[in-house]
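Complex 451.
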Amino acid sequence: MIHDSLTATLAGIVGARHVLTDADLKAPFETDWTRRYHGTARLVVRPGTTTEVASVLRACTAAGAPVVPQGGNTGLVGGGVPRGGEVVLSLVRLDGIEPVDSRAAQVTVGAGVTLARLQEHAREAGLAFGVDLASRGSATIGGMISTNAGGIRVLRYGGMRAQVVGIEAVLASGGVLHRLPGLTKDNTGYDLPGLLAGSEGTLAVVTRARLRLVPRLDHRAVALLAVADVAAALALVARLRTIASLEAVEVFFREGIELVCRHAGLPLPFPADYPCYVLAEAAGRVDPLPELAAALDGATFEDSALAADRAGRDALWAYRERHTEAINAEGVPHKLDVALPLDTLQHFAEGVRARLRETVPAARAILFGHIADGNLHVNVLGLEPTDDRATDAVLRFVAELGGSISAEHGIGVAKTRWLHLTRTAEEVGAMAAIKAALDPQQVLNPGVIFG
Ligand code: MLT
Ligand code: ZN
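Predicted structure with D-malate bound:
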């Protein structure tokens, strides 16, 4: 149904069936995955080409209509759903994927391609993509670039920004930035792909990207180790760092594994339960199990399990990867995603629970994360969605310890109030100046990063 002139203009650009105005059709685009963030969209528009994205943005800018870009809607900080009355610009129809360029080990993909599809495409070419995360089936490449997604392999390959060799993106004006030649060396001024990675849809809308691929490593081994605490876990990280095949080192705790087991119907991995668990994965062209086992030989841990076959590895990974869904099944979580200097991590893991007990006794904290990156996900249950006391206590503690209030999820709308804790006024001012230069009418994702 055509409601107003913007709706009619957008229908003329993308076709009426790709402009959604009915409440039930808009609904899946209006609430985030955690159910904490929700807003009514003016409409949802689903362009199918970069040219259509450009025309849509030109029309929205002319109409003064704010736009929320959205990929697979797997974001965790409320940056991809409307706050109230915005146009949701869904990029999922931009799902073209070009053949892998084997000589360069690169591929050009549309913003709407899911991570799982990219992984399969690279695999078929004997290569792999360096970023992996649990929401691979839904998360899209455009959203992952816009949020500079991290995931489980950052220690080996870096985050999303490190994979982007070239980008195509549309400015609020409708102008198209087109840098897709795949030049590994291109030292000609500002690094625009690097700037757009992590800009959370506030500077431009990513439509395509040229991505770096890495060798496919088919031989894998996973170790699950029970330890006394984070300090013991970090001692294992130091040993594991010495092996070239190391791909992931994750951490989780008693309360998380109990929740996962209950939710997923899994048995505990060991006959006894322990305060802290480390999961490490190694991958290589030859079986990395001997190297992984050698690194752990003589190390201090309470119990261990090793797996090299696919089923065994998946069974161990399930204890880590099913945390997010298990927590979501318990309630609407407040998701805090922080990075700490490694020498403060033990103090933080102990202290954060104590601070939460003092500040909000009703809160229940479940921690897990990417320990080798100093990245802990602090999930707080038992609070009203608008109750910010836990967030405030945790993020202030992070700032005291010299950490970052967002390691990989971004600022979104969830953390804007606390951005100043770990970015200086000069830094925020420089970012705001870039925003003002590229999007002077504040059309793109207003309210995100800067509040
Ligand atoms: C993860 O590491 O699993 C993701 O960051 C998702 C989450 O934090 O829930
Ligand atoms: Zn994570």
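DSSP finds 16 helices and 17 strands in the chain.
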